[in-house]
Amino acid sequence: MAIAMQLLGLDFNLSFLSADMISHQYAGTDVKVLNNLTLPIHENEFFTLLGPSGCGKTTMLRVLAGFEVPTSGRVLLDGQDIVKIPPWKRPVNTVFQNYALFPHLSILRNVTFGLRMRGLSRAERHKAANEALALVRLEDFVNRMPSDLSGGQQQRVALARALACKPRLLLLDEPLSALDYKLRKEMQGELKRIQRETGTTFVFVTHDQEEALAMSDRIAVMRQGQLEQVGPPSDIYDRPATSFVAGFIGDSNLLPAVPGADGRLHLAGGVDLGVAGQQPAQVMIRPEALKISPDGPLSGRVADLVYSGAATRFSVTLEDGSGTVQIQQASASTSGISVGDHVSVAFDPKQLWVLAA
Amino acid sequence: MRSQGFQSLPWRFRGLSTSALLLYVYLYIPLIILIFFSFNGGRMATIWEGFSLRWYADVIQSEQFRAAAANSLIVASISASLATALATFAALGFRGRPLRGQGVMVPFLSFPLVVPEIVTAVATLIFFISVGVPLGMIGLVMAHTVFCIPFAFITIKAQMDTMDHTLEQAANDLYADPRRTFFAITLPLLWPAIFAGFILAFIVSLDNFVISLFLAGPSSTTLPIYMYGMMRLGVTPVVNAVSTILLVVSVLFVLIAAWINNLNKK
Amino acid sequence: MISATQKQRRFGLAMPAVLFIAVLMGGPMLIMVFVSLVERAPDGGVVWGRFTTAAYTQFFYEENLLGEMSFNTDYMQIYLRSIYLSGFTVLATFVVGFPTAMYIAMQEPRRRALLIFFLSLPFWVNLLVRNYAWLLLLRANGLLDQVLMGLWITSEPLNILYTNTAIAIGLTYSFLPLMVLPVYAAMEKFDFSLVEAAFDLGANRVQALLHVIFPGVKGGIIAGCLLVFIPCLGSYVTPVLLGGSKSLMIGNLIQAQFSAARNWPFGAALAFVLLLMVIMAAALRAVLLRGRNRREL
Questions:
Q1: Cβ contacts of residue C172 below 8 Å, gap of 6+?
Q2: How far off is chain A from C3, nearest CA to CA, in Å?
Q3: B164 touches chain A (CB under 8 A)
């Protein structure tokens, strides 16, 4: 099942970087941190590894960077297997979660570090460094020390340092997790802009699905070392491949459905869902796709409601025993409803998504 | 949670600050008196007869003092250097994921500090004589290095443990192979601790008495041994002067070591 | 994952230091035990081939000129005096040092670092110098006497020097930081809100101290006791400067065997016994702390 899902998302011919059947377990343990993972990554794209903690996304990033050699599998860059090549020989740079700026070096010397190791001349180094710092809008800070800068500024220096080397691949390990909300939102925009301006291929790791949806060209959802789904954000959101992805991305309602004599799926209580189906399945519908409306086919009681200004979120327990659904609706249209009320719920069959049971 | 307790407790346990103050006075007064009386003009060590630097002049002009001081400085320099080098390698070897047996080997490096000096002195003396090591500067250096290693090691390892390991990964990521990473990143960050460790080892060697007493030959008298000889002869301000010199040197070095080690903690 | 070559490299880095200490401490210890079981030579060396336990029996029995053995308590007295003085010093340093440790632990972090620094500073001064300072103070008509007589508190010199009291004072002064530092370290990790809670529940200061604070810093107290006891037991400088010939400690006794008395096996045996006592004390500490939170050590 999972393999079939992987094949759907893959595109072997066009990828310039491909992680091929990567498996990894730490010495002395049986636990497979990565389990036959295959990721094709396109050039110039913003690719995100998304998953809960412990799913192996950071390990995968370390494999790409060269800090871990996987127990099996290949990493192909332009067709060459680089899996055994040490980090200092790979044209891959990393932005670390804790920034890892060298405390004893000035900002300039931090940013030019990689270039110095590569043997570029002083003029070349300074030119590249200034360009990189201009990209992150920190040109004035060249002679400061890392300890003089705030967290957000250090973050940007780390980015500049990695970009200055113009790598084929830039890896970002949850770089925004230490920032406060406002700064985070700001940096998300900045990162997207920089990626588009430089055209560098970004591989971004995060556990925050909102962040992934906002920034990525394509997302790979991971769980326990395996790939659940790969695709653009809209695919992931509207057409999740598994119930895990459906549950992990955004909020979703998952309702059990059975095939009826008419060849269509029905809920437990018999309500026709308007989609064809021969097998028992799970039907996913997002909270914003359900509506409390006087002539809806479903009925239930309001168990709870949370008012948040523009929208209100309702928990409605369906009478036919299918369960409790979350409904998100504009507050204006639902102002009179309170807990305990009997309501009817409508949906659009086109917004339903069928998952395997 | 703790700050709440702090604000109300000191006045509940009255007398703490007074007893602390008394303790510090108790610790420093004898030394201050000793220093004070080294400037005594009179011949009696504890009867004040006016300010004078004559005893320092006597000390500095004394051939024996200069010889003993030279010996001490030579032994300390070599022992501390050797010990610091060994300790640095050991600290580098023990970093990262633990090797087999590391749990025993690391505390073992502090072993010389646990054994009473007199036992070490006796055992080393017997050992040197049986093995044929001559009792002189070489033997002193060997014995001093042994107890200098823990001091250097503890200082360096402390810094090593707080050092951010991702820095070296970042360097690797930025095209620096392990050798260049070591010289560009690891060593500069470790340098203050190595230097501080050296200084502490130096002081400890300079100050050492019991082990040196047993192992020094007639021509390798160290400064503490020289001082001891004078103390046995009698209490005179000259002894005060020599003591003060040694005291000031030790304290100065400790201050330098502390200052250097603090440079890293910005 | 550490590669095999990396493991080798790391071992190679660490081994020189470990071997250096192993050879220059382990070797001597073994030979010391060996020598303690060997016959003493008349000129002060040892007769290598001949084994005997004479050194150990010498501790208890004395052979007079006629070759008869009689029970001799001299050496036992010295050992007992050493144990007694060391124990007393542990107590004294505890009484003097504990309130200070508590005081420092209650200060704000920057002040604490400063206080600890100044507490340990005297420790880096040569032991001879520190004990000599007390020599100056305690001798007949020394400074203490001058002050006391000047204030008309006493009319004659106290003659503290060359007594057990002088040694006790010297030992306490020399090793005070070794008690305060571990106790302070334990206190730093101690949660003082527990004491607040005790007060809140009606305990008075003494009860809070005995039932909340002491158990809480037990690890530090035990460590401090050990760190003071061991050097005191083997101390040489203090008794030699402040003790005089009537108040010998183990250290003096051992040293004498290698100078005036010229009895190397006996000296080696004494040193070995001292070493065993130290090991026993350390084992005692391990037993007392068994099952305790490792973090407190």
A1: C89, C92, C93, C96
A2: 10
A3: yes
Q: Which amino acid is at A187?
A: M
In the chain, the amino acid numbered C275 is L
Q: Do A114 and B266 touch (CB under 8 A)?
A: no
Q: Are residues B231 and B155 in the same domain?
A: yes
| C-alpha–C-alpha distance, residues B227 and B65, integer Å | 9
Note whether B8 and B115 are same-domain residues.
no
Domain count, chain C: 1
Q: Helix, strand or coil for residue B163?
A: coil
CB atoms within 10 A of CB C109: 8
Q: Are residues B100 and B193 in the same domain?
A: yes
Task: Write down the ipTM of this complex.
Answer: 0.86
Number of structural domains chain B divides into: 2
For A290, residues 6+ apart whose C-beta sits below 8 A from its C-beta are: A253, A325, A326, A327, A328, A329, A345, A346, A347
Q: Name, in order, each residue with C-beta under 8 angstroms of A266's C-beta and a sequence gap of 6 or more.
A: A257, A258, A259, A260, A272, A273
- In this structure, are B121 and B249 located in the same domain? yes
Residues B200, B108: Cα–Cα separation, whole Å: 19
Find the closest chain A residue to C2 by CA distance. Answer: A27
Length of chain A: 357
Could you read off the pLDDT of C189-218 as tens digits, one per residue?
888 888 888 888 887 878 888 888 888 888
Interchain contact, B169 vs A67, CB within 8 Å: yes
Is position C138 within any domain? Answer: yes
Task: Give residue for tokens 């005089």.
Answer: C244
Could you tell me the two tokens for C223? 């460590």
The enclosing domain of C182 has a CATH number of 1.10.3720.10
Neighbour count for residue C73 (Cβ, 10 Å) = 10
One domain, residues B96 and B222: yes
Tokens of C187: 């206190």
Query: Does residue C207 form part of some domain?
Result: yes
CATH of the domain at B196: 1.10.3720.10
Is the same domain home to B22 and B63?
Answer: no
Decide if B170 and A165 are in contact by the 8 Å CB cutoff. Answer: no
Residue B128's domain comprises 56-263
Say if B137 is an interface residue toward chain C (CB within 8 Å).
no
Place B265 in a pLDDT band, splitting at 50, 70 and 90: low
Cα separation, C3 vs C5, in Å, equals 6
Number of C-beta neighbours around residue A140 at 10 A: 9
The Cα A138–Cα A190 span in angstroms is: 13
Structural domain span for residue C272: 71-296
pTM equals: 0.81
Within 8 A of B109 by CB-CB distance, chain C residues are: 17-18, 21
CA C280 to chain centre: 14
Q: Give the range among B36-50, B81-95, B243-257, C262-276 with minimum mean pLDDT.
A: B36-50
* B45 domain residue, yes or no: no
- pLDDT per position as a tens digit, C53-62: 777 777 777 7
Q: Is residue C278 part of a domain?
A: yes
Structural domains in chain A, CATH included, are 2-247 (3.40.50.300), 251-356 (2.40.50.100)
Domain assignment present for residue C223? The answer is yes
Please tell me whether residues B14 and B88 are part of one structural domain: no
B51 in a structural domain: no
Cα separation, A303 vs A305, whole angstroms: 7
Give the pLDDT of residue A21. 78
Test B30 with C133 for CB contact under 8 angstroms.
Answer: yes
Residues of B in contact with C254 (CB under 8 A): 118, 122
Q: Which of the residues A82, A88, A145, A155 would you substitute to probe the B interface, choosing the one with the greatest number of B C-beta atoms within 10 Å?
A: A88
Instruction: Round the average pLDDT of chain B to a whole number and report it.
Output: 86
**B153 touching C (Cβ < 8 Å):** yes
Instruction: Check: CB of residue C228 under 8 Å from CB of residue C143.
Output: no
Please tell me whether residue B113 adopts helix, strand or coil conformation. helix
Residue B44, domain member (yes or no)? no
Same domain, B64 and B31: no
